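3.2 Worked example (two chains)
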Amino acid sequence: MTAQDICRSPGYLPAPALFLNTFSAQEGQQVLFRCSIDQQTPATRIVFCKDGVEVYSLKAQQAELIYPMLLNVTRGSSGTYTCGYQHRNESNWVRSSALSASRNLTVTGETWHWGTGRHRSRPP
């Protein structure tokens, strides 16, 4: 099973929780996503999804419960985000979690022009 599969067809292990430090950001800013898994959950891989497609994954570490993803915001960053995890056992079988509750990120219409020190609204 691939990470993209978990984003489109999650499994049955308990869902993690997804936290964002903001739900609205401007281009050029950074948003911190945190995927939190249960202490009793055996995870080998953490996956972050946007609109049903993998955008980032990382290897799980033993005793680690919170996994971060730092997103540099662009126009295309608006969307619905979830996270999940996978567990590969000693027989190489992969089981996937249910996905976290979804979180929406909105990119606002103003951008900062560093050279001019001015804001301008992005055209619709």
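3.2.1 Second chain
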Amino acid sequence: MPLIKDLLPHLTVCQLDEVQPALNRRGLSTYSGWYEILQDLVGPSRALDFRTEEEAKHEVMLRLFTSVFYRLRNNYVLKNSIHLNTNSFLTAAAKSVHHFILFPCIHQALQALTCDQQPLLALLEKHIRSVHVNHFLSLTENKTQGALYVLHRLLDHGVTTNLVVSIDCPLALAWLLHGRGSQYVNLELKKLMCCGSQTLSPSEDAVRCSPGDEATPSDNLSDHVSPCKRVKLYSESLEEEDKSGVSSVAVDPQVLCHTFSPCAGPSAGTCTFGQITRLEIRTCGPDSLKGLGFILPTFFCLQSLTLHSKSIFRESDVLDFAGALKQLSDSSCSSLVHLNIGLLPHIGLMKTLLNASPRLTSLYVEFQTVMWGPQFNLDHLGTAEPDISEFPLEKLTVKVTQLQTDPHFLTSVLRRCPYLTSLHIAGMRLPTGSSQSQLLSTLSGKESFSF
């Protein structure tokens, strides 16, 4: 046994992955082997953040899969290219990772998933639970159709329910959310879909599956898969616009699926839409926030929503967003229990959000007061409609960046959170002469809180 433990740090990624099940059955962990690789990838101090075998393995596989799949430069990959630049590694990693980072700008790698790497896509479809769109997603360029198809397969045919978006593009956001929980239909997107659908040739669609073309993806990437004859898009060779001025690129998931999928693949019949339960928008501008306001009222399957902006949201935009939250929460079908939002212009909007979505059990809010413009009187906020007597809030995190914070306002909110078990407050500065005693008295009996 000591010999095996000594050997673990010297095994390759594929070797570690292969021996792990047998060692685990004997009560042995492969953590030391994964930790050794993590140190090379992220450094010793960062590697300590991954404390379990599964956490360390997933981080290693995710980082290496992303580097190898997209052919990104990485010192570890360069040193171990003979073991990593193989189908065996991609197969092993695809079975281990639960998160997929999509770079629409790296067209060649994503296009490969529509052709010779269809079996790899089938594996990802079975295991990926979270997708991160990390770059601009164009709906008017043919070269991004591969990215749209991959997203369709993961979001609609696969098990993905978590979506992370790092782009500020309302139209791309509308495509990502279309049919995947909300009943709202973006008119501009609908126009693009209708226009793109007309580029299909009916005669070619009728012959897309000919005898001998059928193939079933397997877990072995070396197995030969002959994709069906592709449905050619009239706009592929000439990227020209129609008379309406809208690019005639196919963006309808149904059309993309019939275009790229093997005959025996998931495109047989009509595609169903998946459901997004967790949504995180890391670069949410005012237009994206406004667009989300139309989508939210019928987004009944959404359980967690995270919105962050590099600049401070306008109060009027936040109030409109709160109105959309109110429409959602008024429905008994609503599932939203977690909200994370920032940057808000003043702390008074916390009560507005809680009144708008009174079923929240977890709230993270970040405030940054503008240094110019009118000052806000917190006493009159929330009087447009009656306050909810009690909130079911269990976790509350408040991050404040402002010169002074009124403790009485925060205390008034906390008094109506009898089920609060976790509270974290950062950056709060009390006015001169104020004391934390009232706040601490309100918190007495809470299980966990910090400043």
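3.3 Remarks
Residues 53-70 form the longest helix (18 residues).
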